[in-house]
Amino acid sequence: MLLGDGMSDERIPELAGRTPLQAAKTPHMDMMARHGKLGLVKTIPDGFPPGSDVANLSILGYDPRTCYTGRAPLEAAGIGVEIGPNDVAFRLNLITLRVAGEEIFMEDYSAGHISDTEGRELLEFLQKELGNDEFQFYAGLGYRHLMIWRGGTDRITTSQPQDIVGKNIADYLPRGERALRLISIMNASRTLLTQHPQYNRRLAEHKHPVSSIWPWGEGRPPRIVTLREREGLKGAVISAVNLVRGIGVYAGLDIIRVPGATGYVDTNYQGKAEAALKALETHDFVYVHVEAPDEASHAGNLTDKLRAIELFDSFVVGRVLGGIRKFGEFRILCTTDHSTPLRLRTHTPDPVPFILYSGEHECKSNVAGYDEDSAKSTGLFVPEGHRLIGMVIRRH
What CA–CA distance (Å, rounded) separates 74 from 158? Predict the structure, then answer.
């Protein structure tokens, strides 16, 4: 199962009215689309946030309507942090704010894609200064971290920081039960982080410094049956993102870590593909997740999105196609989880294109390739994303 996060998009004027999937050079995905089953799948149930948490749960065969409790508990599992039944987990971004008079704006949801080392340095600092029996801070990767509110409440509304870049944060602060307690922790972090030596060091290097934390994606632990219990399958997951690793933990999958896997355009694409082929020697299936196209979309970077899609096709899809035939009978699901239009810089719940390919050239179509319009033209539509896995493992 090969997934390029956020690859689907809208038509873009700079691409002569084409989408990035239509404009990018993707010979391997195009071949599979022409000789396999191409269609659209709705990965986001009505009423759910169009995030990678909901979408990846769907693709792995879990109905979010019955098991989704929030993003952060999944990320906690990916980091290895245990959450009690009375605790609430929050995804914690390290962000850059911009002060203009009396107003404060979201400048960068990722603090310039801060490095793992710098991010960990600040999380350890926050735990030392703000951590107590009520709040604990855990380091993740880059700008993506975790906060646990022991005895906290999930009757609260937060905002995704990537959705409010350039906007006044006053309109997007936590709301609801005990929201002021959460805001007080955010304010305390601003005072501490702007006084940390790293702040001025990054300014001197012309990088966005970390000026605050931003908690969001709150939730309590979900109840999820493993894929081995449900389907009798032994699987593995390969991802640089703790969210997807955490879904893998709940699904009972082995977590395979690949050196050089960053979650950005510079990730180790070929290393992920090689690790996937190796995993298939001892596992029934492997789930390979590549975050890079989504990150490029959130940054509004068309060049990087095209490059990420092409690298995914060449070094992940192409390498897997070149090595998987040694196993004999096989099936490949190639898809994206949700649409992330560059124009919006955030996710949308639109159905996304998928390919199911078995190498048997079971059909030949005249579609242009793997893209949104071609997928729609086939008439194949899966209205409930969690049912897509049945087409992969049950051959129907």
Answer: 17
